[in-house]
Amino acid sequence: MKISHSPRACNRLPVLGIIALALLFIFTSCASHNLPSLGGQPGQGALFEPENGTIAASPEQTGEGKPLFGGVSSPEPVLTEGEALSLSKLEALARQHNPTLAQAKAQIQSEHAKALEAGLYPNPVIGYIGEQISVRGTVGEFQGGFIRQKIVTAGKLRLSREKYQARASAAELLALAQMYRVINAVRMQFYRTLGAERKLEVQQELLETAEDRQVTVQEMFNVGQANRADLHQTRVLRQAQLLNVQQAENDLAMERETLGAIIGLLQPLGEVTGKLEAPLRHLVWEEALERLLAESPELAAAHANLKADEIMVQREKVEPIPNLFIEGSAGRNFEASETVYGVRAFVEVPLFDWNQGTIRQAKADWRRQRNEVRRTELSLRQSLADWFRRFRTALQKVTEYQNVILPQSEQRYVTRLKSYRADRETWPGVLEAQQDFFHRGLIYIDQLVAWRQAQVAIDGFLLVGGLEPPAGVVPPGHIDSVPKPR
Amino acid sequence: MKKGLSRRQFLATSTAAVAASALGGRDVQGQESTAESRQKQANGPDSAQSSFSRYSRYHPSFGGPPESDHYLGKLVPGLRQSGLPPVPFEAPDLGKIPWRMVGGVKEFEIRCTPVKREFLPGQFMNVWGYNGSLPGPTIEAFQGDRVRFVVHNELPEPTTFHWHGLELPVQFDGVPGLTQDLIPPGETYVYEYDLHQTGTFFYHSHVTMQESFGMAGFFIIHPRIAYDPPVDRDFGLIFQNFFISPNTATPDSMAMNWNWHTINGRSGPYTTPLVCKHGERVRIRLMDFSPMQHHPIHLHGHTFWLTGTEAGRIPPNAWVPRNTTLTGVAMAQDFEFIAFNPGDWIFHCHMTHHMMNHMTQQVGPRIRQKVDVSRYLADLPNRPPVESSLAQPAFEVPGYPQKMQGMEMNAEAMRKLNERRETRGMRKQWHEGVKGLMTVLRVLPEDLYNRVMHSEEAIQPGEIFEAVARRK
Ligand SMILES: [Cu+2]
């Protein structure tokens, strides 16, 4: 219900003063919310130090020209033909080219934009009024204009802005998470590619062994120590091993393609260079879990969202506190042939709708988010258990392969070779030991890759999937969709 | 033929001939005629009607009809006189067990022990034997002796002693359970009895697996006066087999196949040659203590008479002439012959698998061109490319290759082979043809015998062999 007053004559100067004041207020509000700063937000940083196997977040200013995440607009780096790619080079390329990082950056900008919009003061309404036209032959009793301004009360705009700033913080944390996802994915894929390169070499050695066996059995056939069925079998084994080589070639080609995709380059990649082996580091479950819960960007984002939801509850609670609408008008009373002024004020009375539903909804969202924090913790714990199991198993296998299995298998091969040289061993016996040695090598490479991947995952807060879309700030089903964010 | 015969006849006078030749006094024709004239003198008036009846200890000759005592040198005596005690028994590479007289009894002390035996230079095998030796050292005694054996079991498991072929009181026969309790580890057991037999006997453990592990030795009982015709040499050889996998030094006594072959605990060419003088009468006592292999034993260049078995002496009218004789498991055979034919003669089991050691298939880089195993060892994760042997034209012949490519002997092994006095002056690569159950009988003219066995002057490889060959 609006309380309306007829425009009436009043002092011209005070009315103009009100209008001027109102406009001034509006413009200053505008100005004070121009481009909210992004500086000083928690979790901002870039991922450095690719060589030592840990991801370190180092602070980086995010001013113009030096964005948090490299821009997609940067010129495509030209990889020279057959250039050997180190891990640090690949990470640098990914920071530059992976589209999800740009997406994550856009999401931050989007949340900041909402914060800006939510805090903007409402615009005044300016209009023309012609009343009682033709009365007594005049053009109207009142011909003039009015200006109406909504006066926002109870800090609604401030709360709205804070809420979206909290959301922007969450977006920044999620962008950091996305950076981990990308870098982790690059590292994992790097080790997979490296492993595929090494496995191809071993499979080629095994092919030579299979070819040797074929020649050997033909030699044996010539002296009656093997028969035709044995010859057939060596061809089967040789051909099967050739298929293994082809599969390894396919694996390597596709690992390289995958690596290129994660980085965001369409250009074919060459050989990657690096070491699968590194000093073996033991991890303690309790320490890994503690670090994860303390530093996970995902969990930090969930907390930031919880803060936003707390603010949202506050915001919705103040919503029913009426805003004041003030209207001033000025015109000419042609009946009285004089200039007149009018003033009106309105207020919405929260009689039926005092926002009780939305408050309840906001509280529900807040409760929901509290459980989202809890869910995130548990999900991280579950995921860590899975990665930790892989890590521990792979570490144990790598350790034993390094300490016992590979040296012993090698010694077995050496022993048989020397024995053959001393005329005490058959060549098929040597080939068997050689084949075992190479097979153990294949298993070892698999375990190295598994160990590296698990280590990257655990060091990188379990954030994997460098081409998954960056997580949105707001969980699905969250109330938000109003033209004017509040 | 005549010329060849003459050349061999010449060897009878080799020493004089060499001296004369060195003086440059005679040509070849002259030497031959001298030898022929000597032969005529020796044969006397009836040489024309029985040119085959004469037997010479210095050159191949028939010795008369089979009924003749000289047929193939059958009863031709050695250089030693009759009526003397026997010559000492000699088993190359084996010792003898010392004894002491205790109250009129010859008392021997024997320990049952684990043994590390060097089958080939540098290849020490873990076997069991007696007094640290495989086979055990020889027990040498005389007919009529009373003997006592104080046996200490130093093995980690029980054992007994059996006296193979001896006719002795049953309580000393050494069969576990049946005649005595096993001798526990660390304990001592005493056997004592009289010897009324003569011949080639042996002792061994009566625990089967211990037998397979090598626990046996000679027990030679001599007559007080050597049997006629007396021999100048009395050699003994024990043949054994073992299965020893590549890269282990311990035999598998359960195995059914046998890849290591030893004579007196060594494999050819590490077996020490039997060296005798040209013209001597030689006895070789051969005993087969293989777990389950019989050995057809073959001597080159000579025919020998089978004069004894593990049961003792065979009456001369039952002697059998042979070049090859099958000696079965746990059997002994005594061979006697006149060493009329100078040279280095292989003496071996004729089973082909016993003429090789640790035999392996010959396929692989060994027969491929330009491929050496060292290339594999140099870079283990990257094996060298396969080279096809089949491109060699020889592979068009099925059955190729048959040649055993021979174990490479390193310098140290070669030194061990040739540092033995018995091998001096043999051909440089003599070891290539002496493997497994093989040894060499060296029949040397006296001057060469003395150079080899007694002189300290340097002898070049092949020098003695070539000297012998030159004189033919
Ligand atoms: Cu044999």
Automatic annotation (TrEMBL), chain A:
GO molecular function, one term: efflux transmembrane transporter activity
Top-rank taxon: Bacteria
InterPro entries, alphabetized: MdtP/NodT-like, OMP_efflux
Pfam families: OEP
Similarity comment: Belongs to the outer membrane factor (OMF) (TC 1.B.17) family.
Protein name as it appears in the record: Transporter
Source organism of the structure: Nitrosococcus oceani C-27
TrEMBL record, chain B:
InterPro entries the UniProt entry points to: Cu-oxidase-like_N, Cu-oxidase_C, Cu-oxidase_fam, Cupredoxin, TAT_signal, TAT_signal_bac_arc
EC number in record: 1.10.3.3
One Pfam family cited in the UniProt record for this chain: Cu-oxidase_3
Cleaved signal peptide residues: 1-19
UniProt keyword Oxidoreductase, yes or no: yes
Top-rank taxon, per record: Bacteria
Key words, A-Z: Oxidoreductase, Signal
Plastocyanin-like domain: residues covered: 117-224, 253-363
Region (Disordered): 22-59
Segments of skewed composition (Polar residues): 30-54
SUPFAM superfamilies: Cupredoxins
CDD domains on file: CuRO_1_2dMco_1, CuRO_D2_2dMcoN_like
GO terms for MF: copper ion binding; L-ascorbate oxidase activity
Stored NCBIfam families: TAT_signal_seq (TIGR01409)
Protein name per the record: Multicopper oxidase, type 3
